[in-house]
Design brief:
Elements (H helix, E strand, L loop, with lengths): L1 H17 L5 E10 L8 E11 L2 E11 L2 H11 L5 E6 L7 E3 L3
Antiparallel strand pairs: 1-2, 1-4, 2-3, 4-5
Amino acid sequence: MLVEFLFMVLARAANLLRGYRWPEVNARVLSAECPEKTKGCSVVTIDYLYSIEDKKYHGSYSKPFIQRTSAQIYAHILWSRGFDELAKVNPKNPSASVYHGY
């Protein structure tokens, strides 16, 4: 569980570095789910939508948690359908984005 958690945290850091200089856009959170897991760390999956020049794009982000309770709180209390956040978008390929929320 801890190894999976650390791997996901490092992957997130790498994505943030990759998109560090990309411009920010508003992103609308469409859903935040925390499915039941039998092994490994708990993961919240966030789906979001953003627009570039009137064209809509979809992105997805997974955030790991060691405790399932923390993941549930994050998914169901801190995030709600329609919550606005930020995403960093590749200016050369607008379909590539990095979720920049909490």
